[in-house]
Amino acid sequence: MDRQIVNNDRLGIGGVAVLGLAGMFFAVPMLMTAAFSLWEGGTHYGFAAFRILLQSPQLLEAMALSIELSLATVAALVLLLVPAMIFMHLYAPKLKPAFDFIASLPFVVPAIALVAGLSNLVTGPEWLIGTPFYLVIPYFFLALPFVYRSLDIGIAAIDLPVLTEAGQSLGAGMGQIIVMVVLPSLRASLVGSALLTLAVVFGEFTFANVLLFHTYAVFLNQIGQHEANAAAALSVASFLLTWGAMLGVLLLGRAKAAKTEGR
Description:
Blueprint: H1 2-38, H2 48-54, H3 57-91, H4 96-108, H5 111-121, H6 136-157, H7 160-169, H8 174-185, H9 187-203, H10 206-210, H11 216-224, H12 228-262
């Protein structure tokens, strides 16, 4: 007990210092950005920048497009990645290092090189080329590392072989097992993957700008060229929404863990 108290005291001293520095690192720039978004010149502060954003029809269009692209990217990732990872964990665990390496490649390939390569490689179908949903292809690769890690942790946390054998013993096919057993067990991982994908899509600028699509990030860049306060206000709002979403994932994970312990 004494040793535990000593360890807690040591953790408290170092932890307070580390958390204090980390809090300042994140909070000070955000507070300065928030103050700048409210600044109206001299010593006057107000919500003029936020009113400019609310009166801009381009904001709603850009947000709607980014949300649509996010949902399409999440659907593509779930439909392609979940079955592949289930197959890997069940039948080919030795391929996991190869999967890890492939999933990490988007981190080392520059975005401008990726968009140039995809533009030369993907030349069809005609109904996709030239439409905003063409961005789903590069967004898929950008979000792949984050979604892969989230799903990998979620699958490792459940006893996938036992769940699969139990489903097969009851006469269920692999498709039914994935839909009715595996996906509900991965609810927290799927929600986290969706929110991470949302953050990636909303923050991505290079692909949309090069391909001339007016997404949320492009709108933020454009409005920042002539309305710096409005851009700061939009950045603060985006930050709050992102942290709210992450808090939701954290609470969902804790609720699931508490429910599991209660059983």
